[in-house]
Amino acid sequence: MTAASEDPGGDELSRLRDTVRRLERRVARERTAREEAERIAEAGTRRLLDLNAELDARVAQRTAELADANREVHEASLAKTRLLAAISHQAFTPVHQACGSIELAVTATHDPWAIEQLDRARGALTTIERLFRNLLVVAESDSHGLSLAIGPTDLGTALGEVVEHWRPRAMQQRSLLVADVRDGVGLVVDTDVLRLRHALDELLHNAVRYTIGGIVRLAVDVADDQVVVTVGDEGPGLPVALTDHLFEPFSGERDALGAGLGLGLAAAARIAAALGGRLDRVEQPVGESFRLSLPR
Amino acid sequence: MKGVLFNVVEAVITELDGADAWDDVLEASGVVGAYTSLGDYPDGELSVLVVATAARFELSADAVLVIAGRQGFRHLVAHHPELVSQYRDVLGLAADLDDVIHPEVRKLYPDATPPTFRSVRRDHGIDLEYRSHRRLCRLVEGLLLGAGDYYGQAVTVTHGACMRSGASACLIGLDVAHPVPR
Q1: Rounded to whole angstroms, how far apart are CA atoms B29 and A70?
Q2: Could A29 and B33 be called an inter-chain contact, meaning their C-beta atoms sit closer than 8 Å?
Q3: How close is the nearest chain B Cα to the Cα of A44, in Å?
Q4: Whose C-alpha in A71, A104, A257, B24 is 20 to 30 A from the C-alpha of B79?
Q5: Closest Cα in chain B to A29
Q6: Which of A29, A41, A44 shows the shortest C-beta gap to B32?
Q7: What is the ipTM metric for this complex?
Q8: Which pLDDT belongs to residue A252?
Q9: How many CB atoms lie within 10 A of CB B50?
Q10: Contact of B35 with B7, CB cutoff 8 Å
Q11: Is the predicted pLDDT of residue A4 greater than 70, yes or no?
């Protein structure tokens, strides 16, 4: 007879002990595994927090660098526009004086050759004067805003003067300048008359220059809250490529005739904005048309 | 080696012969066996576990690895279904081991060192060039068979040149009776 058969309860006890031992080992394994998993999870969390802090620091650093770079670009741009404004201002006065001298010289001679030469010189200086005048407006506007001298202005008179200035040039182009300023006669608006004339001058200059054997029209519409001056022509229309950035400086000219730098419309648009209005292009089948709106 | 593979081996042995079998294998192996999926454990522990399992089931160590791979594949999928759900068949999965699967594995386990697989597709199969310092090519065979089971495809795995016989890489061929059109 074996010991087991002598003690049947002993086998049972042995099996129970084995089971308990296995369970104890499993529990110990599970506890160890759990502790390691917790350690790994904590280490991962710490790493994530560290990475997050590092990322925050990098973002802050990059943001500061970007702000510095933007500031530098802005300052450089301001410096450039100030320089342009200063050069334009300095150059504008002597050019203007030279134009005056030529006018005097023309009146003092009857020599056709001399008159012709003086006319050419006057034309060239006028182009340079116009360039500096527009450059000054764009530079001033972009750096610190246009200075204005607002005062009561007779709109009909101001428009009439500009129209009369451009009528002979239109005739030279074998074109007709038609102006309907009846609505503006007697109308007094608070504005900067010199700036307004400058803007209108640019619009008419473009219209007359590009229209050969056609009609240039200037019309005034007066509403309750605004005055709208429209200048249209029958010249070649603007290339489609230009229409999206028409009022940006140096965006180009309308065709191969153009010898300018595309500053006229840019200057006119800035003046319109400074006067509280706006300049818009009006699409039309033939030629070009621009609408200058001003507050009443 | 990542703990998730030890978890898979544990799941397979427990499934085959109960929880006591895993206790016995651990005891025979002399390892603690407290594996957590994110942990990293010595490669040698897998070797002693395989030897102990082979002894218990009276199988060769190679057979244990093939069985662990084939039966363990679905346990791996249960851990990371997103790794296989994007494929329609075993050939698509096998072709992307290096370029898609293992990069994803490295995201999950940054310190993992998965093997490399160069693959060349054929009409009804794919040739894989397996390289790993662990030389677990039999486990790879099993995993490919398990992937076939998972996608419901009858597959044949052949093993040519082998690192364990001195080759620089193992050449493993996988053929599918009815591949899914690419």
Answers
A1: 66
A2: yes
A3: 10
A4: B24
A5: B34
A6: A29
A7: 0.72
A8: 60
A9: 24
A10: yes
A11: no
